[in-house]
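[job 0412] stage=complex_fold ligand=adenosine-5'-triphosphate status=START
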Amino acid sequence: MRKISWQHLNPQVKTLLHGVSRAAEGAGISVYIVGGTVRDILLQKRNVDLDCVVEGNAIELAQRVADLVRGELKIHERFQTATVTSPDRISVDFAMAREEFYPHPGALPVVRPGTLEADLKRRDFTINAMAAVLHGPDAGVLRDLYDGVHDLLRRHLRILHDNSFIDDPTRILRGVRFEQRLNFKFEPRTDRLLKSALRRNVLARIKPARYFTDFRKVLKEEEALGCVRRLRRLGGLDCFFKGRAINDRVLGQIEERRRRLPSFYPAQEADWPMIRFMALLAGLDKVQIEYILKGVPVCRREKESLLGAIQATSQAKLLSVKRMASSDIYAILKPLALENILFIRLRTSVKIVHERVDLFLEKLAHIRLDITGEDVQKALGKRPSRIVGRILAEVMEQKLNGRCPDRARQLEFMRERTCRI
Ligand code: ATP
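[job 0412] stage=complex_fold status=DONE, emitting structure tokens
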């Protein structure tokens, strides 16, 4: 009987899992950590996403855990799942053990309550189909019905049954993600079945929305470029990109330059999947991009950014002219989303453009006026806000160019300016 070792987990995670064990024992409920959580613990990752499966009422157990650890409880009625967030801000998800079947290939599965075994049977790869007991005297015992540990050791990705990719083609994208992230290989039979599923064009059976939900995760990976290249070679991109040639060359450039960004860059705040998506769409026009985005769940802001990225090359050209005041740089970059600014910076190798984008992100973007609209209103009397806005913009231009650094000088400039209106 193999037991899982918690040693390398961070102490807050251990405390929370201990709380889950105690709550389960108190209620006589069976609970297991499952799937990617077990995989990552066995791979000795320190920070893991915590997923628990409950044989019984998941919401009741989550409530007990929340009480015991004084955590926050969030219930997702629709899915009959719950999340507890500990005071240390570690979250654990609880779901009832389920079995599922596919009414037809590519459809969403129909689910009903089941045992742990049935729950593991519906999973994608053997390395993701393990569980570890959290309750009672068996706590820590690994349930490995499909030899996941063996595959982990051999660095193999193996599906649980021959129809797996047909039932759920998104597993192809998941598989490529794990292959690239973990540096694993599809074992020969899985590899054959994956390629055969792709030859049968299974990815065309799922809606763009479903494809994109998994493709966004691909773009989130540190190894996104490797994943995209692999998917392209496999023919796993064609149906989503509707036959258009995607630009993994631009993606390669961006990944390469990204490593060399100055440290003051707000890179963590940026939506990298979106920037990578912009790179893949580089070279396509508005009509082509809109065609690809049909039925794809991107919000309005994301869509605007993706379409806005068409201008990146011309914006970079504008930013490379010989003489430019700080206010000119500001006027070009200020209206753009951070993702579009980063895309311009990463898309070009022109040094002056780098310097100007850097100046904007490090300094200009943080400059604030020391006067307000009210100050202008007072000087002007009642005037349309359009005029107030225009005057403020002019004062800002002065400040950006170093001419009105403080409130006194800004007021002076503003008064002079309002006299002329
Ligand atoms: P990641 O580290 O990227 O979050 P994960 O394996 O934890 O990967 P999740 O999407 O969080 O992935 O899913 C959790 C678990 O649910 C997986 O480990 C797997 O057991 C199961 N799972 C998720 N998606 C599928 C799928 N499409 N088919 C079968 N099982 C799945």
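The chain has four domains: 11-154, 155-223, 244-352, 373-419.
[job 0412] exit 0
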